[in-house]
Amino acid sequence: MAVIFSGIQPSGELTLGNYLGALRNFLDYQDDNECYYCIVNQHAITVPQDPKELFENTRKLAALYLAVGLDPKKVTLFVQSEVPEHAKLGWVMNTISYVGELERMTQYKDKSQKRGDSIPAGLLTYPPLMAADILLYQTNYVPVGEDQRQHMELTRDLAQRFNRVYGEVFTIPEIKTGIGGARVMSLQEPTKKMSKSDDNQLATIRLLDDEKTIVKKIKRAQTDSDNSVHYDKENKPGISNLMGIYAAITKTPYETIESEYAGKGYGVFKKDVADLIVGALVPIQTRYNELINSPELDTILDEGAAKAHEKAAKTYRQVELAMGLHRK
Ligand code: AQP
């Protein structure tokens, strides 16, 4: 039985990118593995958050995890800040990280650019905290979107570095990305990834968007003037992105999509993409609405935190002993 860990930040309403690149794939593991799925609120505060929104988004994210079909009897679902070992091991990982390697991270470069002279230090030290999240559970596989590959490589480097210096404590984790929708791009700037914190509302499909909104956003998605449904990421990023979404939902190869839509134009294709998205999201939204105000949600998160803490504390104790951070 392998150990699986993944986390999502409650930094806004989840997007179709979060769903196709991460959340949906979490389901594949729950029957046969030891799964830890986390709401990484300490990662979310690496950029300023409105406290009320952070609180609400944490709950919404928990409900969405369950609404997509995760079974709390099979997986451990919990909030990062409720398991103190994440921050503790995060600090340890900071001490073995090099500033140069952290500054090379694409996510840091992208997010710090928007912050002018006031770049929060937490943006730079995000990857060591992510490494701590993963390593605490002696994780074998981390299902995340393709955009997280660089952070995952750093996590592996830090685990190997620690093991080399202090002895074998950590399992070296591997990334698992999904097929097709491993990277969903912005509907308005299709060379940029779809991000839940994007201010342009037309750029993202939110998991809780209603049918009318989804149809409008797909209709207005940036494409080209070719009017030919053909996959070419370099020269036709917009239509290629919509094809990626279509392929991820239906598990259809690009060639099949191309022949199906030969001569039909973008209007027909966009309508079908919108219908597919609506079809995928409506059942999730129905279940979400049942869960969001239920006391069941708190019980699940309380039990999840206790279970996660049990495992995390064992690993952290090994770290203390290996580094001489203990007294007894
Ligand atoms: N566009 C995307 N395509 C595929 N997968 C994606 N993920 C995020 N965006 C896409 C995957 O979703 C998971 C959760 O990510 P996160 O919340 O921890 O942080 P993120 O990657 O920074 O996601 P966002 O939506 O871009 O959030 P903000 O805007 O707050 O930074 C990860 O597995 C990620 O790969």
UniProtKB/TrEMBL annotation:
Coiled coil: none
SUPFAM superfamilies attached to this UniProt entry: Nucleotidylyl transferase
Molecular function via GO: tryptophan-tRNA ligase activity
CDD domains: TrpRS_core
Motif ('KMSKS' region): 193-197
InterPro entries cross-referenced by the UniProt entry: aa-tRNA-synth_I_CS, aa-tRNA-synth_Ic, Rossmann-like_a/b/a_fold, Trp-tRNA-ligase, Trp-tRNA-ligase_bac-type, Trp-tRNA_synthetase
Keyword Ribonucleoprotein in record: no
Compartments, as annotated in UniProt: Cytoplasm
Signal peptide: none
Catalytic activity, as annotated: tRNA(Trp) + L-tryptophan + ATP = L-tryptophyl-tRNA(Trp) + AMP + diphosphate + H(+)
Sites where the protein binds L-tryptophan: 133
Enzyme Commission number, as recorded: 6.1.1.2
Motif interval(s): 'HIGH' region: 10-18
Ligand binding (ATP): 9-11, 17-18, 145-147, 184, 193-197
Keyword terms of this UniProt record: Aminoacyl-tRNA synthetase, ATP-binding, Cytoplasm, Ligase, Nucleotide-binding, Protein biosynthesis
Family membership: Belongs to the class-I aminoacyl-tRNA synthetase family.
NCBIfam families: trpS (TIGR00233)
Function as written in the Swiss-Prot or TrEMBL entry: Catalyzes the attachment of tryptophan to tRNA(Trp).
Self-association state and partner proteins as the record states: Homodimer.
The protein's name in its UniProt record: Tryptophan--tRNA ligase
Species of origin: Veillonella magna
Species classification: Bacteria, Bacillati, Bacillota, Negativicutes, Veillonellales
